[in-house]
Write a structure and sequence with these properties.
By secondary structure, this protein is α/β, with parallel strands linked by helices. It has eleven helices and 15 strands. It is globular. The structure holds 6-O-phosphono-beta-D-glucopyranose.
Length: 458
């Protein structure tokens, strides 16, 4: 293990009994633990209002992880998990947290990672609680760190995002705050930098001269399920369009960053989003039938569960190239892709009369499986000279020999190392909302159409 990471580390999960924590954060932490990639002596403290004990919390984590891992390592891991009951808005919970931290630290000062897996309306209250017991400041002036991880949504408009940032910075410095968008940490998304800038084959063609359009899709066949109350407030575009999909596009479309430094990469991503222009034509806003009966959804809700929009990027490289985004729930397929469609070339071939344009389509797929495919045109074997499309296929999910995988493992791994590359910068957040505000206005103008569960609107 990296010798720098010998310092004891305390991870505090605010709202740590929720779905995100059980389904994503704990499996990720355990994965790091099982591969000896967490700092030596890492303790995890769950802070939530539910009245349960440490044993019950451990049992919930055990239930989630046990079927995939040997019980021995899991039991060692669970010994490092502790539960602290407390509400966000009363001081006694924070006092208990402080007491636990002091007990844990003794005469050393552990590094502290606070993970806010709570709705943003509680941020202010949590900070107040932390300030009251002086946990917002690092306990050692000269050594170690205290950091804050925050989950999306980072506001619901540009204005609210600015207010939220102001709240965050009442208590923490810029370099202490890590804005999580787990799509930035997905392997296939990160792979765009390696793929684009390490293969001579594509980068010279990566521009308006050769590219017909870019398509970013996040189609999910599962419905809103138990998340009705949250989803109804945000809708499909705020849920994944304003964040995950913009991140996917920014990696596809960014200029070559000056270096691999966090600042250069964040700036290169932000520049893409900053130049985005929403095109109102061909917008679709739709809701699946039966959505209104989902628990937590307001009667007669007009929230979209599917959208399709078009945009373009106003810069030299991409001027005039259409970008198509579509995403939603309860659709006919589960598909998350970044697709680059190249312009067709006049072929020297026998036309079959099917009007096919002979485009090459390069697809980076995250779902249903991780793979890269490239459609190329070849002659049909045999005595005829017709063209056919064949697909070059690079399975990416073959992770044999890969130790730690998963986006949230990367979130913790980088945050603990203080690397902000795969977290959203403030500039990026504001650029994203400036674009999103226009999209949301455009969506509001569109009549909501209905679609059947299991069908994708066109
Ligand atoms: C979340 C959205 O941020 O991302 C969910 O709130 C969505 O609605 C999820 O299903 C998709 O993430 P993943 O990692 O399952 O592709």
């Amino acid at each position: 293990m990296d010798t720098k990471l010998q310092a004891p580390t305390s991870i505090v999960l605010f709202g740590g009994t929720g779905d995100l924590s059980i389904n994503m954060l704990f499996p990720a932490l355990f994965d790091l633990y099982a591969h000896d990639t967490l700092p030596h002596d890492t303790q995890v403290f769950v802070y939530a209002h539910t009245d349960i004990t440490t044993e019950i919390m451990r049992e919930r984590v055990r239930e989630k992880i046990l079927h995939t891992h040997s019980s021995k390592i899991l039991e060692y891991f669970l010994e490092q998990v502790h539960y602290i009951q407390g509400s966000f808005d009363t001081p006694d919970g924070y006092a208990r947290l402080k007491e636990e931290m002091d007990k844990r630290d003794g005469d050393v000062c552990s590094n502290k990672l606070f993970y806010l897996s709570v709705p943003p309306r509680f941020f202010d209250t949590v900070f107040e609680g932390l300030r009251a017991v002086n946990l917002h400041e690092h306990c050692d002036k000269d050594f170690g760190w205290t950091r804050l991880l925050v989950e999306k949504p980072f506001g619901h408009s540009l204005e609210s995002a600015k207010k939220l940032e102001a709240v965050l910075h009442t208590t923490f410095e810029q370099d202490q705050v890590f804005h999580v968008d787990h799509y930035l940490c997905k392997d296939m998304v990160r792979n765009m930098i390696s793929f684009r800038f390490s293969n001579t084959l594509f980068e010279p063609l990566w521009n308006k001269e050769y590219i017909e359009k870019i398509v970013i899709k996040m189609h999910e066949s599962k419905d809103v399920s138990t998340r009705g109350a949250f989803y109804d407030q945000v809708g499909a575009f705020r849920d994944v369009g304003q964040n995950h999909m913009l991140e996917m596009l920014s990696f596809v479309a960014m200029e070559r960053p000056r270096s691999l430094s966090p600042k250069d990469i964040q700036q290169a991503r932000a520049a893409v989003v900053d130049n985005m222009i929403f095109k109102g034509e061909h917008t679709i806003r739709a809701q699946y039938e039966g959505y209104n009966e989902t628990p937590g959804v307001a009667p007669g809700s007009q929230t979209e569960t599917f959208f399709k929009i078009h945009a373009c990027i106003a810069n030299e490289r991409w001027k005039g190239v259409p970008i198509e985004f579509s995403a939603g729930k309860g659709l006919g397929e589960t598909e998350a892709v970044m697709q680059v469609v190249f312009k067709s070339t006049p072929c020297l071939c026998v036309e079959k009369g099917d009007g096919h344009k002979h485009e090459n389509v390069l697809t980076f797929s995250l779902k249903p499986q991780e793979e890269i495919t490239l459609g190329v045109w070849t002659k049909v074997p045999g005595i005829k000279d017709y063209l056919q499309e064949r697909v070059l296929h690079l399975p990416y999910a073959n992770t044999e020999g890969v130790a730690v995988k998963g986006a949230y493992s990367k979130v913790f791994y980088d945050a603990i190392r203080g690397d902000q590359t795969l977290f959203k910068g403030q500039e990026e957040i504001y650029a994203g909302w400036a674009f999103a505000d226009k999209v949301l206005e455009g969506l509001r103008e569109k009549t909501l159409i209905n679609y059947k569960l299991g069908e994708t609107p066109t």
